[in-house]
Predict the 3D structure of the following.
Amino acid sequence: MVHHPIGLVIRNVSKKYANGVQALQNISLNIPPGMYGLLGPNGAGKSTLMRTLATLQEPDEGQIFLGDIDVVKQKDPVRRTLGYLPQEFGVYPRSTAEELLDYFAILKGITNRAERKEVTAALLLQTNLWDKRKQRLGGFSGGMRQRFGVAVALLGNPGLLIVDEPTAGLDPGERLRFLNLLSEVGETSVVILSTHIVADVAEICSNMAIISKGEILLEGKPADAVNMLQGRIWQKLTDKDSLPVLEQEYPVVSSRLLGGKGKVNVYSLSRPGSGFEVVQPDLEDVYFSTLKGFYDMDIYHQKTKQIVP
Ligand code: ADP
């Protein structure tokens, strides 16, 4: 049987919590198969959206379709094809990786012992934990634990994998291994990576959205979004004391201090002043320009409204 990856369509989804916080405001997204980055600062509404996609909570309004499955109304079929790695992934510290994965495989309905052995071995190999399979999870590093979480989430071959803020706290080597693993999964499934780390999205996501205060500010391919900024990011090297003045005068995208020297990136259609040089934009420039509202990328906005599955 050929496995056809299917997309996820989110239409006009809103959610207000009982305490009055409007966590999601009329969100529409079209998420194709592959790696999708949902990028936004803390409190933007990412986890709320991830939990909603994972059928753990319901939106007040709006519709979500995974292929032709109605995610809000048909929770069981979604759950059968869903892998979800939450922000906080609790494990039983005294179990070994092999034991616990076997246990979760039973819960997933893989009752045949031989089949289970094959599936869990393949996942331990894929997540690079085969050599550690006899070790107790209590002794695992953060990165090993996250990869174990992916192994659990991948049981049953999900068509949709949701990963919430996975790289926070990982060292650079662990982070790379983890992102490579997700990329590999993204070759055959929809993978949604929710994160506040721009580099995670820049490195592995073929499509992305930027979310802030419950609203989608930008949607598109990272490379296209970066291209839109060509010629619009100007950099000036300055001394530390001039930074606050520059921030008053110009639309400052970001500023950095390096050994007592300051470096500012400014958004401008033409040279903003003396001492500025145009620089090659990157996704971080896109992120901050978008959050600060420096440009209206209306071609990326809410393209999904008319899509009816
Ligand atoms: P993110 O994952 O981007 O940090 P969240 O979805 O966790 O954002 O939160 C979005 C907003 O909703 C925040 O203001 C947060 O305080 C609020 N919020 C999240 N969960 C709840 C909840 N269960 N009850 C009330 N408010 C919540």
In short: The first helix runs from residue 46 to 53. Confidence is low (pLDDT under 50) at residues 297-309. The longest strand covers residues 22-31.
